[in-house]
Amino acid sequence: MRRGDAWWLAGALGVLVGLAAPAAHAQKSVIGRLDVGFEHVSGAASGDPDLQGNDPGANLRESTQFLDVGLALGTRGLGYAPLNSYLLGQLRLDLGGQPGVDETIGHPTVLHSYSDARLFALHLAYAELAGFGTQGALQHLHLRAGRQFHWGGPLGITFDGATFGYDDGTLAVAVRGGRRAAVYNEIQDDPGVLAGLDVAYAVGGRQGLTLRGEYLFFTRELTLTDRDTAQLTGGEDTVDYTVQLAEVGAYWDATRDVLLSLRASLVAPEISHVRAALRWAFGRSALLVDVDQKIGRDLTYDIAAGRGLERNDRRTTYEVLRLNIPDRQPYTDAQALLELELTDGFVLVPEAGVRLVQADAEVRTPYDADQVRWGLGGYYDVPIDPQQGLELQVRYGGTRYDRAGDAHFADPAAGAERVAHEISGAVRYARGRRRVGNRILGTRIFSAGVNAYQEAWVLGNRFIDDTDELAGGIGLDARWTFTEWTAVRASYEFARDSTVFARWVEPFHAVRLELQGTL
After folding, report:
1. 158-200 tens-digit pLDDT
2. Structure pTM?
3. Residues in contact with 493: Cβ distance below 8 Å, sequence separation at least 6, in sequence order
4. With the C-alpha atoms ordered 42, 45, 50, 56, is the resulting torsion angle positive or negative?
């Protein structure tokens, strides 16, 4: 752990402890949460090699312990009415010692993948002014500075910078810019610079039709690996990479119970996706329908992927090139989900979906698979008395994949699914202070539950002899809120990873104890 991170964390915890003093004004102006958890994970190597003939189990730790500290702290109008602030960070400390690069094959967390990795991840740390005065246009202005997260149309992104905006309920405009902030960026010296603009206009106020548009510009110097350089012409060590993303959309509250939306995403200058959605509530039930038409290039895995480049008459990107995952061909994907409340507290959820790829067989890869999806779920809230009850939940989902021609993965470490099945279920007891309908929605004093899942796949790959793939697990947990501000949680998990892709490891056990404090 870096010394700076340790001092920063100690200071932050000290501030939180100080703010926890029972003062009337602090209870209204300060929000905070501190989670301290201990986790023990144990497992063993099976002795079997992976699909490439290696033995990852040779470097596997059979047991390890982690200390987790999560901190969230916010203020609202503390000292100055328009001023708000927020901080969110997480420490994950490996009590067994941080491994070197040559030991990462068997290490259970990506945060330890490099010897100089950040053990403390600072997700958010910003201050904002919400309004400059109480009258006129100035009251609708806001300014935010620091490490912040923006979830927009094209994507969500964390960056160090500033956002300046205006929102009067009818018109909303925001301009932002800064330096990209990524948790897993240790192999890149330059995280990149971004700038963006988004606009929303509610026709006739907040009810009815809302029009939205967003634009994001991102540029960085991307360091290429030796493998990248060998596969690209020119032999460059770095490349200046620029991407422009945009989205426009319309959202219509047609009636009180019907919401329609239509959006178009662009990896400029090409249209990437056009999406339409329907949300219709009738009685105590609801229908949700989503349609996604992929047209052009996609934004895959990372903001730096963008438009990419042409290689062997196929479109790809630098990051995607490293993963051997090409941009998928155009497709139409439709999904429908129906929530049917049959009786008080009993809801049945059938769902169905389909994906049709619009490309000739010779240009399709195994990732370009037609799909048929189906599922059925349900949950039932069973009241015992006004303060306690049971919650039951179960779901089954299946997917069938059909690939054109004789499409196979060239990498023996990858498998082409043909059919996938997943079933899960959970039972939970809850005791609380307030019930709404059949559900305990108020403060839960105590809750405990058991959950389990099982996944199975039928694979189609000429490199894999065992085509039946299984994974599954079971978990137990309990949470007790013993004061208004504090709670304790304990959980246990027993799970089996993939019997094909992780056959070199036996089932593992995980025990976690966590203390939570809130303001």
Report:
1. 899 999 999 988 899 999 999 988 765 544 567 789 999 999 9
2. 0.80
3. 473, 474, 475, 476, 509, 510, 512
4. positive
